[in-house]
Amino acid sequence: WYVQATYTIPGVGTKLGASYGESTLDGNSIDNFNDNENSMWTIGAYHPITRHLNLVAEYSNVERDVDNVGAGNSKAKAKTISLGAILFF
Question: How far is CA 77 from CA 32, 42, 56, 80, in A?
């Protein structure tokens, strides 16, 4: 599942946004895991330079939890900063 919300600052045009999502993958008899759970949240700012060009800044946090068959749980985390531009055409 995934949820997202944004708010545009009046007069400035900058859009602020936040999102959160989770996914689950159930293993079967062929896989080497029982369950694989992933979650991610992101916050971002999107500023229009022109009608077709936006500057973008985002921060994301990802977590993964895997229940391995016979080997216990393993966890992974990642924190990411993204800077760039979006060109609409």
Answer: 20, 14, 23, 10
